[in-house]
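Feature request disguised as a bug report, sorry. It would help if multi-protein outputs had a clear separator. Right now it looks like this:
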Amino acid sequence: MHPETGEYNAQQAPDDQRICNLLATVIDSNLPKAENKIWHAHPVWFLDGNPIVGYSKLKHCVRLLFWSGQSFHEEGLKKEGKFKAAEARYTSVDQVNVDDLTRWLAKARDLQWDYKNIVRRKGRLERIR
């Protein structure tokens, strides 16, 4: 786990910390080539500079976000925002289904929209994988 991600997780309440630590561990093990860093104050994993997955502490939960998640067509992920993102929310570590998360991470690696260049393209997304 990237040191800054570990620090982010350590700042959370104990229940949220367990969720964050599990998410980071599973993400790291399934996306070994991804770069992990704190981006906009939250842990995010990138492939070739493109944001793939991240999580953040919201008021009542931990939100796991996949930037291209709507393309996964998974029941466990809900549409988020106006682009292609999808999310899952957790209030307990027991709610994290590692099998689902592993499957989503495989899809995140293989199904990507180009968020890295969204500003240059004036808000238009293009599929890159």
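(second protein starts here, but nothing in the output says so)
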Amino acid sequence: MKIIKYAMIAAVVSLTACGGGDDSKKADQPAAEEPKAETPAAADAVALEITGNDVMQFDKKELRAKAGQKVTLTLKHSGKLAKEAMGHNVVILKPDVDVAAFAMKAVDAKDNDYFPASEAANVIAHTKLIGGGESDTIEFTAPAAGTYPFICSFPGHYGFMKGEFIVE
């Protein structure tokens, strides 16, 4: 009986020391951005960050802002490969844009960092194309409430590197 009692105490102590055994936040899952305390100036602006890597992945599938809010978006490339081999950008499209058709036009826009100038009217905002270890920051005003797709327009990446910019 004492052995069972000691085993139960050890189990409780272990679970308490390890955070109660709650593994709902695994290390391989991106952490949600913590809400920041709002001051009058902070309520009008939001800073967002997204990272791409050498295996064609963004660390976030969702970015959020409020309609009319000033958005500062920073794209980071955590990989080591040059932009010519594994470049990334973030292109936020209008909701009704055919993403596959946009991506096909982007393939032919190598001289413009895979951003098809003919499609500028279909784009809310976009970063420049960056390579490993680089970053780019842009500022824009969030559009009307809605869900806007975002992609990396480097050839072949849009199928994996995509998400939603949700404006509330």
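Even a blank line would do. Unrelated, but nice: The first strand starts at residue 45 and ends at 52.
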